[in-house]
Design a protein that fits this description.
Radius of gyration: 15 Å
Order of helices and strands: EHEHEHHEHHEE
CATH topology: Rossmann fold
Number of helices: 6
Shape: globular
Structural class: alpha/beta
CATH architecture: 3-Layer(aba) Sandwich
CATH class: Alpha Beta
Largest sheet: 6 strands, mixed
Number of strands: 6
Helix content: 40-55%
Number of domains: 1
CATH superfamily: Phosphoglycerate mutase-like
């Protein structure tokens, strides 16, 4: 079983290593409450501080380290902060091969994240693992399991959000566990 955790709320900035907000830290404790009895044997995170901080309370309760996986990082959309970020994200979801200058296409990001998640799952040998990452990265991975995952799905994800892979409803191979 894989538990995919989208990071909790952090103040927006260009700093990839920005920490969680106070509300984000409170939500991270709720993530730990949700998953502490799920049998998690490993906690893996994107290297970004906000993702690590979201699963740190869970790791602490379980007496586990947070292992860093660079390929769980968020997709690079472009090099600058832009006012039309939603429009830009919609564009790369609409055309999976398109990338803004110095950005990463959906196809490239999806392949990177899928390979990392697949490797982590293989290494786990069926034991439950919690993976902390980011909205685009996780939605792109979920799309490998369900082609109906799209920009609209991504835009409805909350911060944090938690999905159990392999435990779906309505024919989906995953189930949302988080209640905002």
């Amino acid at each position: 079983m894989l538990f995919l955790v989208r990071h909790a709320q952090s103040p927006f900035s260009k700093d990839e290593m920005r920490p969680l907000s106070p509300a984000g830290h409170a939500a991270a404790v709720r993530v730990a409450d949700l998953l502490v009895d799920a049998g998690v044997t490993r906690v893996v995170s994107s290297p970004y501080t906000r993702a690590v901080q979201t699963v740190q309370p869970l790791a602490d309760r379980l007496g586990l380290p947070v292992d860093i996986e660079p390929d769980l990082r968020e997709r690079r959309l472009c090099d600058e902060i832009v006012d039309d970020v939603q429009h830009r994200i919609e564009r790369v979801w609409t055309d999976f091969t398109f990338a803004f200058p110095n950005g990463e296409s959906s196809a490239t990001a999806q392949d990177r994240v899928r390979r990392a998640v697949d490797r982590i799952a293989r290494e786990a040998g069926g034991r439950p693992v919690a993976l902390a990452s980011h909205g685009n990265a996780l939605a792109l991975f979920l799309r490998t399991l369900d082609p109906d995952v799209d920009f609209g799905f991504w835009s409805q994800m909350s911060k944090p959000d938690v999905y159990a892979v392999g435990e779906g409803a309505d024919g989906r191979p995953f189930r949302r566990l988080w209640t905002p």
